[in-house]
Amino acid sequence: xxxxxxRSVSEEWIGLTEDINSARRxxxxxxxxxxxLVCERIREAEKIGRMKRDRKVPVRDFTVEAQVIERAExxxxxxxxxxxxxxxxxxxxxMASLSVQTSSDISVYEGQSRRILIVGGNxxxxxxYAHYFNTQGHEVVINDIERVPSPFKFEPxxxxxxxxxxxxxLSTPISVTxxxxxxLAEASCGATVIDGCSLKSPLINEIRFGISRGxxxxxxxxxxxxxxxxxxxxxxxxxxxxxxxxxxxxxxxxRDTSLNITVIDIxxxxxxxxxxxxxxxxxxxxxxxxxxxxxIGAAExxxxxxxxxxxxISTAADVARExxxxxxxxxxxxxxxxxxxxxxxxxxxxxxxxxxxxxxxDFIDIMNRGRLYFEEAQNV
Length: 380
Hints:
By secondary structure, this protein is of the alpha/beta class. The model has no long low-confidence stretch (mean pLDDT about 90). Helix 1 (about 10-55) crosses helix 3, helix 2 packs antiparallel against helix 3 and helix 9 crosses helix 11. It is about 60% helix and about 10% strand. It has an 8-stranded mixed beta sheet with strand order 3-2-1-4-5-6-7-8, sandwiched between helices. The longest helix has about 45 residues, at about 10-55. This is Prephenate dehydrogenase/arogenate dehydrogenase family protein. InterPro entries: 6-PGluconate_DH-like_C_sf, Chorismate_II_sf, CM_dom_sf, CM_II_prokaryot, NAD(P)-bd_dom_sf, PDH_C, PDH_N, Preph/Arog_dehydrog.
């Protein structure tokens, strides 16, 4: 760029720098105004959250959320800015507002207070259940093979603890839960029993035995981990084992939160989990195993990472830090594992062949099939 008449290159550069710095200062001022307004918006959302709880109104109103997003898109487009920017900003604001309204620390339960026994309550997920049910106003009792410091009452005798409980939550390893269900059934347990296992097929025979003995039983599967505090957009699966009263009890314990609750027949659970957990875990385990054998260190790989690779590494790293025995059980104990791994192998081979083909047609077909699959999900 040539300097203006009468000005040297250095003077032109100094002027340009001053203009840029002035614009940056103005952006800083605007950012400060934006963040103050965001904070003000969140405080107003907190007020709305309290009013909703006081008046027993559900936290989420999807119609209002859609209106907020549409309004943001329209404002951006009216000002010559792409509408998707308004969509993303408004979605972030909605999530922030929901977060302050739906923390698992906030009591939103409107039903009767129950005495809830958590078997395995000193484990990671067991402690989450204990904290959650306590904040909802229930009386929590812990039973576990080990006693550790805890704010909750501890009862080492399982059957004694069960005899005084309204609801029993089994937060125990998959491999031992079936035995506990049989033990409770043989003891004529009068409480509603709810297991939280990631797989259900290893439990079905004992669940049927319990039902035949008159035990009220349902099954849940939180699709989130023990570090979860905000329940917004988290999924909870409730499995119907044939006892509608028990299903209603399970649903009622979580209904007034922002959890997405889906009720399915217990027979379908593991088929779906074969893909939702088994395949998803396996893909990430294969990915980080491949990287660990590549001879390229993680730090070096990061220096060459694309956006896609960074996202994949982040997810794979989270999987690598999980409990290996739990993840082994999720693979090993699923009765649908053969179908899932055969399907995974077929897809991998299809991608390999398409990638090596002299024609791009098969590869394009695979990509288009994936695009249509996710587009259909967005339109549901």
